[in-house]
Amino acid sequence: MAIVTLVVLALLLIAWWLYGEQLKKRFYRRREKPLSETDRRQLATDMPLYLRLPAAQRQKLDGLMQAFLSRIDFIGCDGLTVTARMRHLVAAQACLLLLGRDEPAYPTVHSVYLFEGDFINKMPQHLPGGIVDMQGKHLAGESWGDGRVILSWQGCLRSAEHPFDGQNLVVHEFAHQLDQAKGFATGAPLQRSIPEAQQWQQVFSHAFRRHCEATFHGHRGLIDPYGATNPAEFFAVVSEVFFEQGQALYEHEPDMYQALEHFYGLNTRLWH
Ligand SMILES: [Zn+2]
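Above: query sequence and zinc ion SMILES. Below: predicted holo structure tokens.
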């Protein structure tokens, strides 16, 4: 019996040594103070959409932000000092995606890395024809499958200042996180039922094909050509349009708008 207890204890110690830090980050909650009046005024200045949200949604956003900020670490990169203003603005935009969904605030995300501006991803890029580019890629954001999100602060600020231009870096990267919650990004985030997943697949695969053809022929429409990169990028780019130009998306791509309205549980046409 004593041997069994010792073995169990040893296994628990090994598990804690291997995964303790990740488990702590996933479940540990700091006590995050509610936004003060000054914080709220700053957020409303940086993010005009905040005051345009219906009161009930704004209140829900505040609660989601608190949950987000109490668990997710912010790390300043290349000497950037992360301020409360930065944390609030990232959290507010990231939590927009959860406003109509009944789920906790990104349980798989544990850290947000902030750079002042664009940053360089020094990983080798594999290009068509077997070419490997070692120059590094300038980026404004990245969303990693291991729970890390990397953002340019200037990109976050610009996104919030222009709520209806159809481009939002934070929405884009956190849409990837919702997509990746099932393990990897495919452009088809988990749905509540099989018929919904089939409907999503049908709507999005047709729309993606049409978008790739239009992009190939040099036509530029509502959806950014970057969406033609792959289905995962398409979903992230279309999410940006859904949150910032809901009415236009509804008029141009009603099936896709409705699939997103159902997925996000929000009617963003009312925000404009
Ligand atoms: Zn992306």
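Strands lie at 73-76, 111-115, 119-121, 125-127, 131-133, 137-139, 141-143, 148-152.
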